[in-house]
Specification:
309 residues; TIM Barrel; 11 helices; 37% helix; globular
């Protein structure tokens, strides 16, 4: 894609999303758009059915443990993603947000099959939730999952409340997400971890095309995240550069956001610094404005802005 075409897409995306500011790139004002936290206190915050304490690896990852990794890198705001250990019980995440005012935004998990889904979502948004994670899980028929009545309610309510739907999907699900974006063009969408392209080896060209095809939907975004799990899975993750460049060119930096996916990014053999450094320091095709959007502006716009309550 040539620079003229890229500039047109980027400016169009800004106009369509109502975002016309240029973010600053300041150390100490960066946002990590994807982190999980949990506590070893399973008495106060019980694990969901099917999970045991032995599944919690590491046994604990509290906000204080997170801050030891992110604050030295200038990351002082974080988007918390509900951890599967708690399933639909979002209390720990919400309690941590209240305990650290102005630091966290939240993405919750809700039961799409439950009665009163729309009201549950509205109640969570009033508590500070700015997105809802969806994943196929053990669904046998992906088409029925994405086309279910509950999923329709989830996407419609997210649009009404001006919050995001956040799909955690594999590459084979991208065509279905594309359909949902067509059906619900007013819904903001944030694709986690490049839709896991490269998790099982080099991504296929058709899979990359399916991800980039989503760029035609003005309210669809992509997280440049989970470098520890993609591609060569080895720092400094420079092999991720071509995919990052393609996503930046297709979506514009205004619709791409960096995230660590901690605590998994700080597992042995990896660290927080190498994740943020890939975007901040190591890819020479990223301009300072690109970095400002990807490290702060996009996540600020999507997850820390005001909503309809």
């Amino acid at each position: 894609m040539n620079s003229t075409r890229r500039s047109f897409l980027a400016s169009s995306a800004v106009a369509l999303t109502g975002c016309n500011f240029i973010p600053s790139f300041k150390k100490g004002d960066l946002i990590d758009a994807h982190v999980h936290v949990w506590t070893p206190d399973v008495q106060k915050y019980p694990l969901a059915r099917g999970y045991a304490v032995s599944d919690m690896r590491p046994p604990s990852f509290t906000p204080e443990q997170l801050f030891a990794h992110c604050k030295p890198e200038g990351v002082n705001r974080i988007v918390l993603i509900q951890m599967s250990y708690y399933q639909y019980d979002n209390r720990y995440m919400l309690d941590m947000m209240q305990a650290h005012p102005g630091v966290f935004s939240c993405v919750a998990i809700v039961d799409q099959h439950a009665e009163g889904l729309a009201q549950t979502m509205r109640d969570l948004v009033k508590q500070g939730v700015r997105g809802f994670r969806i994943s196929a899980g053990k669904e046998k028929n992906l088409s029925e999952w994405i086309g279910s009545a509950g999923m329709a309610t989830l996407w419609k309510t997210a649009a009404e409340m001006k919050v995001s739907v956040c799909p955690l999907v594999n590459p084979d699900t991208l065509p279905l997400i594309d359909k949902m974006c067509e059906w619900y063009p007013d819904t903001s969408v944030v694709i986690d971890h490049f839709a896991r392209l490269g998790m099982a080896g080099a991504p296929k060209s058709e899979e990359v095309k399916n991800l980039l095809r989503l760029a035609r939907h003005a309210k669809t975004h992509v997280k440049a995240s989970a470098f520890y799990a993609l591609g060569a899975k080895k720092a400094p993750y420079l092999d991720m550069g071509p995919l990052i460049r393609q996503v930046r060119d297709a979506f514009g930096p205004q619709r791409v956001m960096w995230a660590s996916d901690s605590p998994f990014q700080v597992d042995p053999g990896h660290n927080y610094h190498n994740s943020i450094a890939l975007i901040r320091d190591r890819l020479d095709f990223l301009s300072e404005q690109d970095k400002a959007w990807m490290l702060r502006g996009t996540a600020d716009k999507v997850f820390f802005s005001s909503v309809a309550v």
